[in-house]
Structure formats: C-alpha cells, structure tokens
Amino acid sequence: MSTTDAATPETLPPVSTDSDVAINAKPMAEPGFYDSLASSVLAGETISREDALAIINASDLDVPAIMAAGFRIRQKHFGRTVQLYFLMNAKSGLCPEDCSYCSQSKVSNAPVPKYNILQRDRLMEAAKLAHERGAKTYCLVISARGPNEREMNAVESIVPEIKAKYDLDICASLGLLDREQADRLFAAGVDRINHNLNTSENYYGHICSTHTYEDRKQTLENVRDAGMEMCSGGIIGMGESHDDIVQMAFDLKELGVHSIPLNILNAIDGTPLEGTQAMSPNDCLKALAMFRFVNPDREIRIAGGREIHLRHMQPMGLYVANSLFVGDYLTTKGQPPQADYDMIRDMGFDITTNIEPVAR
C-alpha cells in the first residue's frame, strides 16, 4: 500500500468506529500468564495447542503483555536484529491454479501484469536493487503450478551470477517441485525454497481445488531432502478459524521450516476473496506472537498486508518478528524502503546480513 502526504488538521478524517478497530474487551489473563509461557519456551518446552489458542483468542487488553513475553523469546534467538528480504516477481499472471487469494490465478479478474519469465538483465537489475536496499536474501518468484524446463534453465543460469556479483542469498518460489527439480536447484546454488502451506489442512479446500495441502507438504519435503532450507508460512484473514491458524503454526514446526513469512490477506479486487473483512491490528499482533511462541528459534517475517492491517502498529510486530520484506510485493505496493529503515532504527533494532550459508 503506497503512502500519502500527511493530512493537515483541517483534513484529518474522523476517528474510525469500524469493527476492524473495535477493542476486544474479553477478560484479561491472570498477571504473569504470558510471561510464564515464555519462560517455559525459553526452558526448551513446547507450548500446548490450548495455550497457543489462548494467545490468539486473548483480550486486546493483553496485547502489551503478550508482546513483551514474546520479545523475550525473540531476544534470546535473534537479539535486536532485523533481516531484510527483497521480492522479485520474475513471471507474473498466467497461472493455471485457482488459489482464491491470488491476483495471478486463473480465477482472478484483477488487472495485474502478465509476462513470462524475465530476461537476465531485468533479473540482475533487481538483484542490484536488493543489494542496494540492504537485503540479504533475493526472492525470485514465478506464478505457476510448477516450473517448466525453460524456467528451470533460467533460474539455474542466473543464480550463480547473482550470488557471485552481489553476495545475496537466493530464495526461489517456483510452485510445486519434484525431487529432481529440487536437486537441480540446490546444485545451482539456491539456498532456500519458499512454498507456503498458506493455511491448515482442514481449511485448504476452501481456498484452492487445483492442488492439495499434501502436494505442498511434499514439495517442502523434497526441498528438505535435497539439502535446501525450507521457507514456508501462510496467509491469515481468509475466513479461517483461530484453530486453523494454530494448526498451521504447529504443522510448520513439525516440518522444521527455517523461515516463516506470515501474510495478512490483502483482499484484492477481482479475486474470489474480494471484500473479505480486514483483520484488526491487535488480532494480527496476537497471531504473530503465537507463531513466535510455537516456533521460538525460527525466523518469522511480517510479510504482505502488514501496511494495510497493522498500520501504525507495524513497529510492535518487530517485538516478535525478526524479518521484513523491503519494498513492494508481487502485485501490490509496500511502503517506501526508507519508512522501513526509519521504523527499524526508531525501535532500536539493527539490520543484519549475517546468515550462515547453507552447507553444500
């Protein structure tokens, strides 16, 4: 979402009374409840699903206590560092899948650019921009069920060149992958593969029919077995239950994913989920915190939709999350990079490029 000029006092809008900002005034938890949960996690214990659900169902009045407790976990594993990622939409539109949230799917009428995989020069220009913006990881994304041979060849060709010139880690998001394709990508120098679970297995049929939750899990297992890191998260706010969000958090834990991008649905006009009610900032923060409690030592990234849903509470998300996308997303705008740099600095955090390389 692009920013606008600051409003003058004469043009300030009235205070919103919409339901998406109404306070959830459930009774507060007992004093010390969330801090006790954090202490258990820091001692190496796994919180129960009931406790995870308690976090996401909590009163909005508990949010400060939840974030403070979650920060203790984040602090142990990541200190005050923030990792930046840069997304490149290397192939847009033209996807045969019917994912309801996606503006590039075959069931979307959203006016998005449509083009096949970009030529080398465009991909290198984007890598240069990623480097200049302080990103450590360059995310190369195509819209597809899975990569065809031409797309595989393009990725295999460009990855070594990008890494040699800009010393960027490469995360590729190419759709469904078989084991042979995963092996080839590892050999080409790809560090991570992104393939989101998106939601729980129970809810998956509500958002996609052209492939299954099990297909996505199999791709992640192929990635893991090939020797690459798994980047996998999901989208919240698609009409799923809190139980579904908790289930996804535990599924990611059980898979052992290394990096978890958590998107908040941007209900793009022209997609089947157009008009879906926005999540409140407090609900977003509680979900982010729950993921940190369940996956204490995993990178958690505030991904697409943060500008729309967290709004002025974006900085609070960094108390539990430790990475961000800098710049735009696939078909939607992010806030200007300088706004992210300022936010990170004002929070007293540091941008880091220290990620251990994948063993080869």
From TrEMBL:
Q: Where does [2Fe-2S] cluster bind?
A: 139, 171, 231, 301
Q: In which pathway does it act?
A: Cofactor biosynthesis; biotin biosynthesis; biotin from 7,8-diaminononanoate: step 2/2
Q: Which SMART domains match?
A: BATS (SM00876), Elp3 (SM00729)
Q: Which reaction does it catalyse?
A: (4R,5S)-dethiobiotin + (sulfur carrier)-SH + 2 reduced [2Fe-2S]-[ferredoxin] + 2 S-adenosyl-L-methionine = (sulfur carrier)-H + biotin + 2 5'-deoxyadenosine + 2 L-methionine + 2 oxidized [2Fe-2S]-[ferredoxin]
Provide the binding site for [4Fe-4S] cluster: 95, 99, 102
| Pfam families given in the database record | BATS (PF06968), Radical_SAM (PF04055)
Which domain of life does the protein's organism represent?
Bacteria
> Which chain regions cross the lipid bilayer?
none
PANTHER family in alphabetical order = BIOTIN SYNTHASE (PTHR22976), BIOTIN SYNTHASE, MITOCHONDRIAL (PTHR22976:SF2)
Q: Which HAMAP family match?
A: BioB (MF_01694)
Q: What is the protein name for this chain? A: Biotin synthase
